[in-house]
Design a protein that fits this description.
Helices cover 0% and strands 52% of the residues. It has 118 residues and is mostly beta strands. The protein is globular.
């Protein structure tokens, strides 16, 4: 059974940092691109960042470029999102998701809440 479990969310002040973690199990983690997607209150899903199966190629949305860094450790079956210089508009539920290879996402975690507020 494929499982993705996010952790690391919380309440942080503007300008602060958080690192999200996504633990993967039930599949060959190193075979898949992985994504972070977020959903702000009252809004739709927004793609944040993705990483190739080897961890050497990454892409990020313009809204987070230069502030967020996606990475993975295939020896630990874990995906990360380092978030720096957080802004109130980064407040959202953050999900990790597995890609089928064509940017479609077939498995999602339960999400972790990130709240940026003073």
């Amino acid at each position: 059974e494929v499982q993705l479990v996010e952790s690391g969310g919380g309440l942080v002040q503007p300008g602060g940092s958080l690192r999200l973690t996504c633990g993967a199990s039930g599949f060959a983690f190193s075979n898949n691109w992985m994504y972070w997607v977020r959903q702000a209150p009252g809004k739709g899903l927004e793609w944040v960042s993705c990483v190739d199966n080897g961890g050497s190629v990454t892409y990020s949305a313009e809204s987070v470029k230069g502030r967020f860094t996606i990475s993975r450790d295939n020896t630990k079956n874990t995906l990360y999102l380092q978030m720096n210089s957080l802004k109130p508009e980064d407040t959202a539920v953050y999900y990790c998701a597995r890609s089928l290879g064509d940017a479609s996402l077939d498995y999602w975690g339960q999400g972790t809440q990130v709240t940026v507020s003073s």
